[in-house]
Design brief:
Helices cover 41% and strands 11% of the residues. With 167 residues, the chain is of the alpha+beta class. The chain starts with 15 loop residues before the first helix and ends with a helix. This is DUF721 domain-containing protein.
Length: 167
């Protein structure tokens, strides 16, 4: 851990990067971790440019875990397609990062989650303002088929009860 000492009046100004590096080191951050986070943030903000117009709307960035890039897909079919394009996506992302930062890609389903890219941030609604989807109303039960059913059948009894509740 870096030792802090009182600045003498006759010393020169210290660059802000050196001060921030010592503060982050004091907090337990690895050297260069701040630069890496800033570069990752630039990747998320420039996702559309990095992936291109054909891949950006399909492959949504969800984050990373060490050297694993996490990508979200809308459905399973698209997830399979993105899995097959993982090599090309790795090349594009590592070229933007200017180093081999990621070694693999994991594609998962979005399941309503928003990605980290700029388009997801602009589409995201404020918390609590999104209306909940309404449950579909069950169909009206008229009991038309009840006459043709055996009254001792469990299915007929359940259907008769349903008709009484809905009628």
């Amino acid at each position: 851990m870096a030792a802090f000492r009182k600045r003498q009046k006759d010393t020169q100004p210290v660059p802000a990067m050196e001060v921030m590096a010592s503060v982050l080191a004091g907090l337990g951050a690895a050297p260069g971790q701040g630069e890496t986070r800033a570069r990752l943030q630039q990747l998320w903000l420039n996702w559309a440019m990095v992936m291109g117009p054909e891949l950006a709307p399909l492959a949504r960035p969800m984050g990373h875990h060490r050297d694993l890039l996490l990508i979200g897909a809308e459905d399973a079919m698209l997830a399979q397609e993105l899995h097959l394009l993982a090599g090309e996506m790795l090349e594009r992302v590592n070229a933007f990062m200017e180093q081999p930062f990621f070694t693999a890609i994991k594609v998962t389903l979005l399941m309503g989650k928003a990605g980290l890219d700029k388009t997801a941030a602009s589409k995201a609604a404020p918390a609590g303002s999104a209306p909940r989807p309404k449950r579909p109303e069950p169909p009206n039960a008229h009991g038309l088929y009840l006459e043709a059913m055996d009254p001792s059948s469990p299915v007929a009894r359940a259907y008769a009860r349903f008709v009484r509740q809905r009628g």
